[in-house]
Design a protein that fits this description.
Blueprint (H helix, E strand, L loop, with lengths): L3 H7 E12 L39 H13 L3 E2 L5 E5 L9 E5 L5 E11 L17 E2 L2 E4 L2 E15 L3 E5 L11 E5 L6 E7 L6 H18 L11 E11 L9 E6 L2 H20 L7 E6 L4 E7 L9 E2 L10 H8 L6 H12 L3 H7 L3 H14 L3 H22 L12 H12 L5 H14 L3 H7 L8 H14 L1 H8 L6 H11 L6 H13 L1
Parallel strand pairs: 13-14
Antiparallel strand pairs: 1-11, 1-12, 2-5, 3-4, 3-16, 5-8, 6-7, 7-8, 8-11, 9-10, 12-13, 14-15
The structure holds adenosine-5'-diphosphate, zinc ion and magnesium ion.
The site of zinc ion (ZN) has 8 residues, from loops.
Amino acid sequence: MKKLEEVLRDWEAVIGLEVHCELTKLHTKMFCGCKLEFGAEPNTHTCPVCLGMPGALPVPNRAAIENIVLAGLATNCRIEKHTMFYRKGYMYPDMAKNFQTTQGPKAFCMGGWLDLAVDGRGAEERLFWKDLAAGDAVENLTRTADGYSARVGITRIHMEEDAGKMVHIGGGEGRIAGATHSLVDYNRAGTPLIELVTEPDLRTPEEARLFMQKLRSIFLTLGISDCSMEEGSLRADGNVSLRRRGSETLGVKTELKNINSFKNLHDGLAYEICRQAEVLEEGGQIYQETRHWDPSKKCTIVMRVKETADDYRMFPDPDLAPYDLSDEFIESVRAKLPELPDQKAARYERDLGLSSYDARHIADNRFTIDFFEAACEAAGDRARELAKPLANLALNDITAYVNAGDGIDFAATAFTPTRGVQLVVLLAEDAISSKQAKEVFAAVLEEDKDPAAIVEERGMRQVSDTGAIEAVVDQVLADNPDKVQQYRDGKTGLMGFFVGQCMKVMGGQGNPKLINQLLGQKLDS
Ligand code: ADP
Ligand code: ZN
Ligand code: MG
């Protein structure tokens, strides 16, 4: 199979996502008062409504409607005041009602969008953006200083309910194949879910991954879900098709179901794009089918071929009155909107003078936001001055530390925001070099001590005494007259040699900035 990069030169990938998110922060189910609790004793949170007993009447959960309106407002959707619930025919034992309550053609939230900032290696997947000048736009893409921004349309966000959970006994690994009997746990039946559907506006696996990441960080900020991809409270289906570059018509798509990590979303789509290209280039045909991405085998396999449109016999639920959301209700929800990641990034740029790149990436993650904001607060009057080194600390050292571990809660470590400020102050005062700062960072985490204490104990203080450094510089130059001559004849690369010699004499504790400066003065005079 060809590589993604090669395939995308000839073919354009068209991707749309369907994202399911369980509203895990609610206390009760969508249409009854049963408690929502993960991992409870089976069938202890059920009632006539979620068990579908005849005559039991559903009552919508107001808090759930608030949650979906929050999600819609945060993703630039229009809030539809008049919508209703539908019944979708569904015959399977995990749903005792034999139908799923969901929404019809009009959902609570319609027609939104999100802008993705794509930069670094991820931007390379989208070809040709580099040919544009900053600010230029093509299709949904605008060239930015360090990459591009892509606008992704959101078709709708609708409300529906989850099914119960089947447990198969006697088969291998709990699978239905070979099972002697199956049990069903209705605790999850009726859990409120929102489903967000995008327009087919994504063009690379990286854009799909970034979209999911951005959505997750928005939903987390809204506090409507724990958005755990491992536990399944956030899942994505990736739809993808190919068309020849320049073509406007959509190709036949395949759908990757229930993707449970960002990496799997990226890698599954990348594989599927390459697979489809191979089939098409060999004169074959893509069938509209559902496929499963197997991360260990690194391939997708067919689950289900779609020959005709499914007929779910959808009709308005006669037990649930149509909605008439009031302006007051919508405005009361709008008033609860917290500061969203994009707004945070704009504020970091405006008030703290961060670059757009740094601001965006800080605002990407909870732990970088929490650290950076608390550190700026602790820095008081010096926040603007120290914002850049604090951002570097958050994006480099802290991010590397968190990513290297498994589920590290950085806020619970010994490296508090106050210690972060102390560290960047030492750096700003040239008391330590940036290399030493890395060592201090690791030592604070390990030994739970203030940066200054570690610097003292390890005798790390960088020598920034101009007189002392000048003496060393003079000595090094005097010891190497031939190299000095070569430098003055144009071999300026020797600067590194001189700096290295000075550092060696000073046991690595000389201030590199000052050494460079003094060497420059003396050599160029
Ligand atoms: P289906 O009827 O198969 O569920 P939908 O029209 O509801 O298809 O779209 C489901 C998702 O697939 C949406 O995110 C949409 O943007 C995306 N999509 C639709 N057509 C295509 C296509 N040809 N290629 C890629 N994605 C597509
Ligand atoms: Zn119930
Ligand atoms: Mg669909």
